Amino acid sequence: MTKRVTEALYRMERGNLGDHKSVGAGVMERRVFGTLALRLYFGMDGKDLVILLIGGTKHKQDKDIEKAKALWEAYQAEKSGK
Length: 82
Description:
This protein is of the alpha+beta class. It has one domain (2-77). It has helices at residues 2-13, 61-80, and strands spanning 20-24, 27-32, 38-45, 49-57. The protein has a four-stranded antiparallel beta sheet, sandwiched between helices. β1 and β2 form a beta hairpin. The protein is globular and about 40 Å long.
């Protein structure tokens, strides 16, 4: 499991976002295939900066998406000085 996540992060670092989609509010979900249905949630700060927000499993997907959206909103507010 850890190896697959590490590989996914390595690829993302190099611009390969893999199998991902928007889940709303500027948050993206990247699936990590393996024995568990893992998900990585991230936002894009510009074209090149990936902000990893949270990771989770398919089982807790709805809660993880809401948490990721809150984290992304907090990141953007802090960045803008609000």
